[in-house]
Amino acid sequence: MASSAVNPDIARERQKATFDVDQLTYILYDGPAKTRRKRYLQNLVLQDFAKLKFKPVATLPHEEQYEQALDRCGRAAALEDNLALKDLRELYYFREAVAPQVAVPYGVHYSMFMDTLERQASEEQKAKWLPLAKSYRMVGTYAQTEMGHGTFLRGLETTATYDGKTKEFIIDSPTITSTKYWPGGLGKTANCCVVMAHLITKGVNHGMHPFLVQIRDFDTHQPLQGITVGDIGAKIGFNSNDNGFLRLDHVHIPRENMLMRYSQVLEDGTYVKPKNSRLTYGTMTLIRSGIVGQAARALSMAVTIAVRYSTVRRQSKIDPGAGEVQVLDFQTQQMKLLPLVATAYALTVASRNMTAFYMSATKKIEKGALEELPQLHALSAGLKALSGWEGTEGVEQCRLACGGHGYSHASGIPKIYGNVTPSITYEGENTVMMLQTARYLVKCCTMLKQGEKLPTLMRYLQQPLGGSSKLNARLDLDQLVEAYEHRAARLVHEVSEKLETAAKQGQKPYNAWNANSVQLVDAATAHSKAYVVKSFVATVSTMTGKLRQVMENVCRLYAVTGIIKCLGEFMEDGYISGLQSATLRKGLTDLLADLRPNAVTLVDAFDFPDGILDSALGRWDGQVYQALWDFSLNSSMNEKQVLDAYHKYQRPFMEYQWKKHPSVTVVARL
Amino acid sequence: MASSAVNPDIARERQKATFDVDQLTYILYDGPAKTRRKRYLQNLVLQDFAKLKFKPVATLPHEEQYEQALDRCGRAAALEDNLALKDLRELYYFREAVAPQVAVPYGVHYSMFMDTLERQASEEQKAKWLPLAKSYRMVGTYAQTEMGHGTFLRGLETTATYDGKTKEFIIDSPTITSTKYWPGGLGKTANCCVVMAHLITKGVNHGMHPFLVQIRDFDTHQPLQGITVGDIGAKIGFNSNDNGFLRLDHVHIPRENMLMRYSQVLEDGTYVKPKNSRLTYGTMTLIRSGIVGQAARALSMAVTIAVRYSTVRRQSKIDPGAGEVQVLDFQTQQMKLLPLVATAYALTVASRNMTAFYMSATKKIEKGALEELPQLHALSAGLKALSGWEGTEGVEQCRLACGGHGYSHASGIPKIYGNVTPSITYEGENTVMMLQTARYLVKCCTMLKQGEKLPTLMRYLQQPLGGSSKLNARLDLDQLVEAYEHRAARLVHEVSEKLETAAKQGQKPYNAWNANSVQLVDAATAHSKAYVVKSFVATVSTMTGKLRQVMENVCRLYAVTGIIKCLGEFMEDGYISGLQSATLRKGLTDLLADLRPNAVTLVDAFDFPDGILDSALGRWDGQVYQALWDFSLNSSMNEKQVLDAYHKYQRPFMEYQWKKHPSVTVVARL
């Protein structure tokens, strides 16, 4: 870097802020002490790694991305041990700095693989396996999805057939479609694997169960007999990871390798059923609230990059007599980015509140109050989907708002996109998730008709419909919440009616369900969105002073943008009038102008170090052009001035063309 | 491939079609003879290249993608010569097969570079330069965009200062932001370059002019003195291309290297102005109609892949007592894909009709009827933007509709996306384009008030507003067109009023413009969309028989989906009622069910050979799983069973962990 000064345009932005950036950051990271700790942990890694000058990961081929990720993990191991991190948030921030927005090959080992052993292995099995897993004798992954089967678990084809004579299971993937496909770390890294397979004993299929299968030799790392394993090939992102395939050809494992905390198979092949099958619900909910948080964090990064760049970039004029302006001064650019800043905050808040709600519900559930489970489950499915959609789409909009430079890996946004977009299809495809939520919403309508009381999150369905919004130019937050709840309730009741009518007319329920599923998804989306808005309003109301003024408008912007985007759904039943829609549109552009001066400070508050943003455009100091220049000089294409490809391909091509035009007068210089 | 049979699910789809696929294909490719010719040309290349077993381009690092593209171009050269292709469409199809959905390094040479010489060089210059360019002695590119400056041409910093003593121009890029950045082929391939620079002579700046600059030695290919040139680094796509940077440090070029067809600088430094500056308008329009066509073609490919895969993929059940269903039988999946099939057709038709409109307008313009120019220019800007947005977003939706496998490069859709998404920001950033269109629309309102007659495409603005739609369950196409024109007219008039009111209140026009620019973009989008719908309806009405029935519903689906997506804009002024919106929603799901049986045939009609789709999921024969398997086996990560990375990084990491847990009982096998 030739210049260490801060770009004056971005420096001026920070002076314009009407609130204290730290006040907001401390809310996001739970107070000054934890914020400092986060900064300490991340800087420790970033400073250590800065010396190593890793190449920008997104520019490397698959195998080099994989190598770099292994290298980063290896170098971080001793650091992590010195810190003796126990707190999960601290570990999260530490690892975020180790490989920013990258899925490392050991990721599934220390999350899903270890979790599954902890949760689903018997005490005896845990005593045997956990030390092997913690000491990385076993490096594991979790293999469920097959090439031909994802969301629909019962459709999986892999079988584990018990042989009473040898007291072994024989695991088999009989077809190409039964190939385990996609698990992280499976291709090259893992030597063990939890395999989900149909348990068959005494000729009876007892459905999906987990089995621990060793797939590679613990010493030579070569695949064991009957195992065909490898990497599935390059993807949009996640190329630091060896997402893998696995075929099992009659692989024998001891009976004891079935994870037996819940179900068991006795020596004689007798199957023993689990006592309670609902207990795994909770973990799924926690995983999903994690996905919501990741979507929020990805969008926060992208919007930090795009907002900062939009204050440094000057392009075109507003006043033809004056100079070129910062692009964030254009209303159209504000419209692209400020609602996304609001979305990043809304999703962050939703993820935190959902986790808190989960924690309090878990306590009740542990006391036997299982009635909290279904609404929690429905909420988690809907939020997982909504946040995946809003986060992913938002990241891409940030990239496009950076103009042409967004398309370069120098912007850092393509890497973020590649890392966040799979959340739309993994851990339950989003549309399927919304339909799960819808299933519960429709059930609530039936409960209502039967006079039952609805659980907390569903109570708004009890309000009478009809009537119209009282929204006016003040754009009162409570009125906005009411609008969202009204829309959701209207859509839920309407589609429930349709299903009921269809049933009365003799239509099969499953056909009626499918024939109304577009609207069911709309209803579930509306329900989830209402939760996010309400949750955001509630959190903002706990803030104080100037920060509260700003954050109320951020919250308002999120709510108003969301209404205008789906305006028809608010107008169809006359709830919002044409006059009110004009008020909303006017309110929207006023909010953009109001929040414009705080834009940079709002994204600064996310507190991402440059090393994590990994972006030439998003630098804190705004020195974007020098950073673009440095990025370009480091392109692998610039290692030689004249590439071998010139001699091998271009020159012969040119000479072929020259021969076709022998009469052309050749010049040495133009 | 183990199996050469056609997957029975997809075979059944083709039997269900209610129209003849060839009839539609012939419309798309201008008759049976031209269709056969297209097939012949593409198969010739594809068969020739199939033997070479090129690696899937999107999985390769930047430099190998570049090499492969050069290799492909080199191998195609002799084939192309044998065919002696003159027709531009034929050349397009041929090249599409040479490097499907890839920007080759010579692309800018044979398009913009050659075009610029043809259009802007004097006769004398053409005689000298065109033979050099055609024979590839000169390999050129076109350098306009700078690192700090894109859309706003006057903001470019590079200067060409005439020195009367030496009779040379001195070309200089004085700052880092003035670095020419992004031109295709600039980094490594080109030895010449048309440089756009501020012409300064006798101390006066005459604005941007084109200069031919040699940047590399014609023999050694080394950069010349004063030239710093290289590749800008990896991007989301276009990595087959060496998009480059160029700094010019007081580079001297002869006076004769300024392109002098229009402006001239005489020996003594006198500047001679061009006679007519509007003549370049037309070419820009043609380039933009090309971009519309590319967006249509990209979406057509993506939707072919996603629809075919959705009939082969079976997942979950509708009837719990029956088997898993083809995912396209889910209404939600139909909702994701069938409107995109319709969009692909709508954009294809719009591109064709726009080109035809351009051709007929050009004839009038040549006769001096310059009044056609502004509406043509406004239309081209709006359609460029609309098609870029709809095409790009549509391609990504297709990918997501393929579930997890869409994320793998095996799906082929990420490559298509990487190739189409830059169209949103290049050749005029989309929002800026829409604002250009809006500028003209507002001008039309002023003309109307002054009693002037509007040109053809703008006449709908003359209709009185107010009133309400007559749309009913028939969803009459003319009523749909009327709805779109009504919305556009309403938005245009409304925002024009606002600008006028602001002016009356003493607001500066440029501030009022910016303060209303969100709505101006909405108005211009509505105008462009109305054109696409109207143009689609007109084209469909020329079709006959069963095909017409189907295509009317495809057209209807496009129009209805577009209304529901922006329903608020149709309802705010009471034009569409709540009852009508329910009718539209019901109509939408009916249309999905109606078109479902023809889905595969509608995409088959696009007539893409497998070699061009380059997708495991989109194969004509539906053998997707075998193709996924083959793709995975070819991953560079599978070249060795145990990678060097294991020994270099993973094993030391594991051993480090082992040492921390000395008490763990090590096992050889689980």
TrEMBL record, chains A, B:
Pfam families hit by this protein: ACOX, ACOX_C_alpha1, Acyl-CoA_ox_N
Reported cofactor(s): FAD
A Gene Ontology molecular function term of the record: acyl-CoA oxidase activity
GO cellular component, one term: peroxisome
Enzyme active site: 427
UniProt-annotated location(s): Peroxisome
Involved pathway(s): Lipid metabolism; peroxisomal fatty acid beta-oxidation
Domain Acyl-coenzyme A oxidase N-terminal as annotated: residue spans: 20-138
InterPro entries xref list: ACOX_C_alpha1, Acyl-CoA_ox_N, Acyl-CoA_Oxase/DH_mid-dom_sf, Acyl-CoA_oxidase, Acyl-CoA_oxidase_C, AcylCo_DH-like_C, AcylCoA_DH/ox_N_sf, AcylCoA_DH/oxidase_NM_dom_sf
Boundaries of every Acyl-CoA oxidase C-terminal domain copy: 476-655
Annotated TM spans: none
Binding site for FAD: 145, 184
Residues in Acyl-CoA oxidase C-alpha1 domain copies: 281-442
Keyword line: FAD, Fatty acid metabolism, Flavoprotein, Lipid metabolism, Oxidoreductase, Peroxisome
Biological process per Gene Ontology, one example term: lipid homeostasis
UniProt family annotation: Belongs to the acyl-CoA oxidase family.
Identification of the protein by name: Acyl-coenzyme A oxidase
Species in which this protein is naturally found: Littorina saxatilis
